[in-house]
Amino acid sequence: MIRNYLKIAFRNLLKHKIFSLVNVMGLVVGITACLMILEYVSFELNFDQFHQDVNRIYRVTNDRFQKGKLIQHGTITYPTIGKTMAKDYPEVEDYTTIVGTGRVKLRRDKSLYPEENSLYVDEHFLTFFTFPLVVGDPKTALKAPNSLVLTESNAQRIFGAQPKDYASLLGQSLYIDLDTEPFRITGIVKDVPAASHLQFGALVSYETLVRTWGSWVKDSWEGSDMWHYLKLKPGQSGAPVDATALEQKFPAFSERYFKGDKVSGSVEKFYLQPLRKAHLYSDYEYEIGVVNNGKAVWTMLIIAVFILIIAWVNYINLATARSLERAKEVGVRKVAGASSGQLIGQFLSESVLLNAVAFVLALLLTLALQPVLNQLIGKPLSLAVLAGQGYGGSLMTLALVGIFAVGIFLSGFYPAFALSAFQAIQVLKGSFKRSAKGVWVRKSLVVFQYTASVVLIIGTFIVFRQIEFMRKENLGFNMEQMLVVSGPDLTRWDSTAIDRINSFKTEAKRLAGVKAATASVNLLGNRLPRTFNVKRVGSNEEKGVTVSRMGVDLDFFDAYKIKMLAGRNFLTTDSNPNGNKVVNAVINLSTVRLLGLKDAVSAVGQKFTLFGREWEIVGVVSDFHQQSLRHPIEPIVFLPFYANGGFYSFKVISNDLEKTIDQIQEKFQTFFPGNEFSYSFMDERFDQQYRDDQVFGKITTFFSFLAVLIASLGLFGLSSYTIAQRAKEIGVRKVLGASVTSIVALLSKDFLKLVVVAIVIASPIAWYAVRQWLDDFAYKIDVSWWIFAIAGVLAVGIALLTVSFQSIKAALMNPVKTLRSE
């Protein structure tokens, strides 16, 4: 019987080619879009899930308050926190402490191997997390000073080693940056999974920091550069102990060790963030890991669901729209003895066959488009990630199979039930009429389709307007055509360092393609270091304020066109190779207000304390957006400091960039031999802060287009069948003198009414959704009414184009052909 059902279903699909093509196209596009989005969502949700004890691992976060005001919401805190919490609270099974080193260079003989990210980690790290060692002992590999663990990729890159050679690497030495002491390789670790918020190419033992930074890295309650992770003990049922209950003990911890704000100058509050939330739910400063916007990820999942539902709604709409055409078939079958159950089985088999064909084609299309999607969003997505390696593993595969099975059944059940319910006598007598209930259902489904589409259109408009606003807003400085060169990490600092840096800048400025040159310790767009307890000399305030700081040379403000409001720029005499002899500073307008000074002019000549000594304000510059518009403007203190490992910025002329870059490289290697020349453009680096938002915008645009396409396919098919059923009516109207325009308007208005209803429903939903997304930005666009109007006009236009093709075709038809049977 099933074989017979499928045979008849296949014949029906071939008989009605247009219907089948429209339905298959809608389902293929819908399922493909859904699979692609689910790949992305599964990858994002899967971050850090590979750790064996992920449900018991938490990250310690630290909020700092001064005068009742939150001045830092961060993930870094003091060296002693992890081990002290492990000692004080029996709920803690283990802890690990991490320090980020950033980009370092590994040296072997005379060869340099840049490494994008390395971490200083304590001896617990490799037993705490699930980063498996290929060779070496995870308990001892990072115990001794100058111990080094490489990833497999770096072992292959530096030594040309194959897996069988890894054991021979143990005990061999490498050098890091300018360190003269060798680092002994004590282990080779598997490459870090892409879905890990901690990314590294090498691990260095934390004990090494004691040698290089001093003993404070183990016992200080003031220096704050460490990340701490805690592993809670399993409870009696196997679940971890209650993290919330442990958090409630932290206020006493703060009072015990920080005594209010007496120790650090701030009131310290500590919290626990589950490791599984570190990637998607991090609104913290000084983030060590790879993070994304959880709201955006869940929004994409909602879009996937909507697109799939829209595709299935198409099938329901088109199948029920053909009810009159198949009514006689049902009547004949019933007279011949077919039961309702058999008819339902027949129509369900058609649904299953159509969906199965669409699913296979969707899988093939997903594979074909996979490289395009991966390049678009910069992530290693694949069907394998979705089917077993992503979030939920094999359970995700079973869940998807279940969802598709239920969706196929539900999308086929209503048309099957509706078609099998026809009364044979009424159908064969010709007295069968469409039910008002069926028409209402189809209209409701069209409204749902276009409601979802309009929400996506509005969301896409808002996302791109916000991104364009952030990229084009006046930031308060000029970074156009600014070439940034990383400083010479392998050149030692000495008494001649400042003169050498200035000589390099002078030589570079003589090049025809260079208009300005400046050196800075920090780079605009990067998170600046902070200094706490900064006070204005003569102030009655007991506690100071918190400011960001930036080391710059005397050309910095001119090169970046930052306006000097009062006082003077830095002079050559303000700098000194001995940092303790530097006493002059420039501040921005926000710092003027924060220090309680009247205005920029009166601030010049005032003094404040920083690093435990006095500084004089020699100039005040205007405020500018040091970071993206997600963040408020920072109070910044500029100090005339230089650093070998800083940055050089060159204002270049675009006539022959390649030649200019080559000339700068030549000068760089003359003054800093043996150093790698690495460059980028400032606008590109600054735009990296918007990368996740740009990816989100591209994804929403692409899949919004697909949602509209699917809805339009459904409307096209539905209008085709509806107009076909009104062919005789159109013929009569033409005979009675109706114009083509009036007939097109008559046939189109019913569908356009549905689209207008969808716009009315979609507008408040879209407004709420975009407001939630915009809340993450300190500076954002206004959600104007005209955006909704444009989206509405666009939706109406798309619907009108979709329907009008069929309407015009019907209106131009010769009425003799439609009325000859009458």
TrEMBL record:
Keywords: Cell membrane, Membrane, Transmembrane, Transmembrane helix. GO terms for cellular component: plasma membrane. It comes from the Bacteria. It holds the Pfam family FtsX. Residues 20-241, 454-642 form the MacB-like periplasmic core domain. It is a multi-pass membrane protein. The keyword Membrane applies. GO terms for molecular function: transmembrane transporter activity. It is found in: Cell membrane. The chain crosses the membrane at residues 21-43, 296-318, 352-373, 393-425, 445-464, 702-724, 751-770, 785-805. Its main location: membrane. Residues 302-415, 702-815 form the ABC3 transporter permease C-terminal domain. PROSITE patterns: PROKAR_LIPOPROTEIN (PS51257). This is FtsX-like permease family protein. It comes from Larkinella terrae. The lineage of its organism: Bacteria, Pseudomonadati, Bacteroidota, Cytophagia, Cytophagales.
